Every structure is written in structure tokens, then in C-alpha cells.
């Protein structure tokens, strides 16, 4: 059987358990050989991250260390311009021509997926697995209805959209940044190794604007 590669993109500013636990559940449910964490350099749909690309990469590297199938993939950081997923998939396809690519995203991202740059081409190259709340009805943009797949997720392949109910962790990077800026503790929201790095480098402090650079 061909290699099954998961893709977990995000700003990871910083990475937290709300990114990590669903990624493990997707890895297992979709029977992936690996899950590649791909921090985006310049997000298309939101403001620029607060800390440097190098710091975000290092935080991801530390966070994923306990799971051997989790891989840090810096390819978007190495590319100029906006981080379009369609380009990332083309680049992955060039590296792994026979692999099945499975792109994971939260329900919030999927609700706007039909506004992503070249979303139809994305679905030609990859499957999409949407992580959602247990028992929550899936909200599917109309143009995506034709792609829904209701079979077992370990069979999910390019051109299909599947859903997986995952453990809900109501954690957001925005909330973590706010707490840090307010001088509050963020223990138990993200891995201790990531917190150690944030503290060591003094990231997200009140004066973080002075420290942030591309
Ligand atoms: P921010 O608060 O800065 O917007 P974020 O915590 O939402 O950041 P991103 O890096 O923007 O994190 O998110 C990347 C992906 O992770 C998105 O698809 C999003 O749906 C998903 N995600 C983020 N937080 C959670 C969470 N707590 N549970 C499940 N999925 C999440």
C-alpha cells in the first residue's frame, strides 16, 4: 500500500494541545504513516504571526518530539510569498509521488474551505479530514457536498472529504498569547517543553513587538 501522509498546517503561534491531540487521533483513525506539521510562513487568511519563523519551527519541533510519526516540515517557511496550500501539496507530490495526502483541518477552517485559493485543485491532490465536535452536525459548504465520503477513514483518498469526531480541547493560540501578555500562566494548555522555550526566549511578553522579526 502506498504511503499515507497527513498534513497539519497552521500558524502554530504557539503550537498547543488543541493542535496536537486531534493530529494524533487523525493519524490513528486514517491509518497514516506520518503526520507532517507544516508551519505557514505568511498565512493567507490572517495577520502575520507575532514571533519569528525560526521560533515557531522550534516550538513545533519540541512539541512533536514524543510521537515518532509526527514530522516537522519547514517547506512553507522556505518559500517566498503567501503560503498557499495548493503549492504545498504540489511540492509534497513532487517529493512523494505515490503517497496519499490527507489534509486535516478544523470545522472552522472547513466552513470557509470553498474560499481557499484553488480549493478544487487541493482536492485533486489530497483528501480532507475535518476534525469536529462529537455529535455536532457537520456544516458543509454547498460546493463541497459532492466530495463527502462516508466510508472508513483508513480508506480516505484524494478527492474525498471525511469527518472525524475528536477530543475537544477549547484551547486557542490567541488565548495563550493574551494570557502571556497579561503575565498569567499557561501551564497545561501546551507542552511544557514549548513553555520552557517561550520563557527562555521571552516570547509573547508585553514588549514582544520589539522582539518579533521575520
Ligand atoms: P489563533 O488563535 O492564533 O487563531 P489557533 O489556535 O486557532 O490560532 P492555528 O494555527 O490558526 O491555531 O490553527 C491551525 C489549525 O488548527 C486550524 O485548522 C484550526 O481549526 C485547528 N485548531 C486550532 N485550535 C484547535 C483546537 N483547540 N481544537 C481543534 N483544532 C484546533
What can you tell me about this protein's structure?
It is a single chain. Residues 207-214 have low confidence and may be disordered. The chain is α/β, with parallel strands linked by helices and 214 residues long. Helix content is 33%, strand content 16%. The protein contains 8 helices and 6 strands, in the order βαβαβαβααββααα. It has one domain: HUPs (Rossmann fold, 3-Layer(aba) Sandwich). The chain has helices spanning 17-29, 53-64, 85-95, 107-111, 119-125, 173-181, 192-201, 208-211; strands at residues 4-10, 34-39, 70-72, 100-106, 126-132, 161-165. It has a 6-stranded parallel β-sheet, sandwiched between helices. The radius of gyration is 17 Å and the shape is globular. The longest helix has 13 residues, at 17-29. α2 packs antiparallel against α7 (192-201). The protein binds adenosine-5'-triphosphate. Residues 10-13, 18-19, 22, 105-106, 108-109, 131, 169, 171-174 line the site of adenosine-5'-triphosphate (ATP).
- Residue stretches low in confidence (pLDDT < 50, at least 5 long) are 207-214
How does the overall form come out from the CA principal axes? globular
CATH architecture: 3-Layer(aba) Sandwich
- CATH homology-level superfamily: HUPs
Name the CATH class. Alpha Beta
Describe the main β-sheet briefly.
6 strands, parallel
Can you tell me the CATH topology?
Rossmann fold
- Number of E-type strands: 6
Question: How many structural domains are formed by the residues?
Answer: 1
SS field, number of helical segments: 8
For the residues shown, what is the average pLDDT? 91
Amino acid at each position: 500500500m502506498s504511503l499515507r501522509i497527513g498534513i497539519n498546517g497552521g500558524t502554530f503561534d504557539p503550537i498547543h494541545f488543541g493542535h496536537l491531540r486531534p493530529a494524533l487521533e487523525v493519524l490513528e483513525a486514517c491509518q497514516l504513516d506520518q503526520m507532517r506539521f507544516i508551519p505557514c510562513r505568511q498565512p493567507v487568511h490572517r495577520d502575520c504571526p507575532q514571533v519569528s519563523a525560526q521560533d515557531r519551527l522550534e516550538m513545533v519541533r519540541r512539541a512533536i518530539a514524543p510521537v515518532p510519526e509526527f514530522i516537522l516540515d519547514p517547506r512553507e517557511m522556505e518559500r517566498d510569498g503567501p503560503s498557499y496550500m495548493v503549492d504545498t501539496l504540489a511540492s509534497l507530490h513532487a517529493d512523494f509521488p505515490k503517497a496519499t495526502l490527507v489534509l486535516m483541518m478544523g470545522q472552522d477552517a472547513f466552513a470557509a474551505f470553498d474560499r481557499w485559493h484553488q480549493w478544487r485543485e487541493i482536492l485533486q491532490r489530497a483528501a480532507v479530514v475535518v476534525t469536529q465536535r462529537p455529535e455536532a452536525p457537520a456544516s458543509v459548504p454547498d460546493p463541497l457536498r459532492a466530495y463527502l465520503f462516508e466510508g472508513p477513514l483508513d480508506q480516505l483518498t484524494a478527492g474525498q472529504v471525511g469527518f472525524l469526531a475528536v477530543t475537544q480541547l477549547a484551547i486557542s493560540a490567541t488565548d495563550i498569547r493574551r494570557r502571556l501578555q497579561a503575565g498569567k500562566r499557561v501551564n497545561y494548555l501546551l507542552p511544557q517543553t514549548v513553555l520552557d522555550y517561550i520563557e527562555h526566549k521571552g516570547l509573547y511578553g508585553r514588549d514582544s513587538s520589539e522582539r518579533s522579526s521575520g
